[in-house]
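hey can u check if this looks right to u? its 305 residues, i copy pasted from the old doc so theres a chance i mangled smth
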Amino acid sequence: MLQRRLLNKLLHRCHTLQSISSLQVKSLSSDQQFYSHLTHRKLVEVSGVNAFKLIQGIVTNDVDTLSPSSPLLYSHILNVKGRVLFDTLIYYRSDDTLSIEVDSGLVGQFVKTLMMYNLRSKVKIKRSEEGVYAVYGAGTQPCERGLADPRLPDLGYRYLTSPPSGVTEASIDTYHAHRVKLGVGEGNRDIVSGSAFPFEHNLDYLNGVSFTKGCYIGQELTARTHHVGETRKRVVPVTLDQEIELTGSSKLLAGKRGAGKLLSLYGTQGLAIVRFPHLGAKLLVEGTTASLTASKPNWWPEDKV
């Protein structure tokens, strides 16, 4: 009996983590700003004379563009097969120091990966205890510490160490609901380490890749996909007709045929990876009575899909 109660509690906790009720999420009014403490994100500091060289060789974007006037960069780190290991935001701290933001659940693996590639270079790698905060909402304006999120203007600003004063605090679920409604994946829950492809998660549309920098791990497949145009599905925002709990079965169906996969949910808003022919169509969530509609984000290039 005790084992059954423990199992039920674990299952309940798992469902709660995967699907957040809309009652827990604040609605963003047309003229209000919020900040959220992003506890699902952690920082790793990389410093030393070879710090930039080390990171430049393993990320999809061009670290050499970082400077005091351009201090934040979005990028992925890939494996040799071109699949995403980590989605990152890279902060310029000085000419020999970077702070790299990663999923908190992957920070240990991230440090090990950096140490593996570091070899014997003059680079120090250590976890940071600084907090990461996001400020977002209509008309968001930064103070002097605010760094514009390089992915999308609507994602607002990042702050390190502490949030700005005079801004209303909101739960982390409010932040997640905001970015999900925009159609932006973040962290291992959406961009599953070792299996996700970067362009399927809109890396190219979110300013996260350079096609002019030198070589990096996983570049060959990424460059080929870009030039050949083989991406047939992408992550998009979806709206459900009812709230459901996201369980093991998250396959999306168009009739009896697979159309994509549901990734995360916040109330009736979610993210899914959907094949292009099914954008705008009503799709069924396998194993439930729910249906959803997948939408093309308004920030995608006009000539795409």
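The first helix runs from residue 2 to 18.
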